Amino acid sequence: MLENAFLIFALIAASGFFSVAEISLAASRRLRLRQMADDGDVRAARVLRTQEQPGDYFTVVQIGQNAVAILGGIVGEGALSPHFSQLFGWWLAPSTAQTAGFLCSFLVITSLFILFSDLFPKRLGMAEPERLALRVSQPMALCMALLRPLVWFYSRCADALFRLLGLSSLRDERVTSDDILAMMEAGTRAGLLDASEQQVITNVFELDTRTVGSAMSQRERIAFFLRDDPDDVIRVRIAAEPFSTYPVCEGDIDHVVGYVDAKDLFQRILNNQPISLQDDTLVRKVLVVPDRLTLSEVLEQFRQVHEDFAVIVNEYSLVVGVVTLNDVMSTVMGDLVGPDDEEQIVQRDADSWLIDGVTPIEDVLRTLALDALPHDAQYDTLAGFLMVMLRRVPRRTDSVVWGGYKFEVLDVDRYRIDQVMVSRTTPSAGSAPPTAAGNSTA
Length: 442
What we know:
There is one protein chain. 52% of the residues lie in helices and 15% in strands. With 442 residues, the protein is an alpha+beta fold. The protein has four domains: 2-165; 177-206, no CATH class; 212-334, CBS-domain (Roll); 342-437, Uridine Diphospho-n-acetylenolpyruvylglucosamine Reductase, domain 3 (2-Layer Sandwich), CATH 3.30.465. It has a six-stranded antiparallel sheet, with helices on one face. Helix 10 (231-240) links the parallel strand 2 (225-226) and strand 3. The model is unreliable at 336-341 (pLDDT under 50). Residues 282-342 form the CBS domain. Involved in cadaverine and putrescine tolerance in stationary phase. May facilitate the efflux of both cadaverine and putrescine from the cytoplasm, reducing potentially toxic levels under certain stress conditions. It is a multi-pass membrane protein. The chain crosses the membrane at residues 6-27, 57-80, 100-120.
């Protein structure tokens, strides 16, 4: 009896070892292992190589687990069934007692294997995968060497099945942006990152999808000079509209010939020198980019020409806005931008927001916790969304209801949507189709 119990314990321990070896290798993070390998841990380097070609490793695991399971069933049935049958023989007929003894022996052995060779080892392997993978790497290497003929046979059979089914047996180690964002979200939930820091990282990845129109200053907000503006006009405009950079145009805003830096203007004013935009040494060459570029592409153009200011034009070569490096970085920094910056989204209460019409649609989606808005490929801002939904230029009090929210136009300035009231409606069971209401005003 004692020998059988010891043998069962040894089989359970062997099965638990193979379970730990299997789950720890699968759950080990390559970044953590690579750091350990760079610090000189040869075991980490061995585990990394095994992860790249895990076929032989898992073959040994499966051979060991299946062999142990079969032996456990044989030993357990022979060790425990007679004792249970003898016990039940006090109350049951011999045949019935033998059947009951077999069932009880089966349940006890199965329960011991499930608990101590499967559940506990695998949970332990998931909790500390890298540490355990390092510990079992050398014993598993020894098992692979001892079982080399069997490993070769079963591995070749498995490879043949993969080729027959047209599948790849190699592990895909590519790290995508979604993987990184998921890690950042997990870090935020764990308290390792602030929510604002997570948002900054998310905004960085959005630079590849957000167009320059989501960060630029709109055409009607551009302060510019004409090439023939006299000195007194320039000084008055600088005082009235203080910016760091001003486009210089020939005749109108759609004929930009360059830009002038406010520092150069201030230097001339402080030195009591006249200001003339006919001076080519004062007017710099301007970077002109199309409005379909993404923010990451604009950053690349800034880097190539060593500039931090650009004029944005549409397909008809009409100026639609200007963008600076600071505008792009403000998009990245989000809520970390200083409080002096103008807020485009102001929350009034738990169920309503005041939103500027030029607010990028990505910021609106994030604020309202929406996945998408209809026809999102046709616009970049909240104003564009309303125009697409209403199929005309919105007027004050026009509204659109979609996704559990009501978007109501509060103020329009010369066809430009200044303010939109967004309020939460009564939640519905499903996503209702969008509705639009157009109420013209006198």
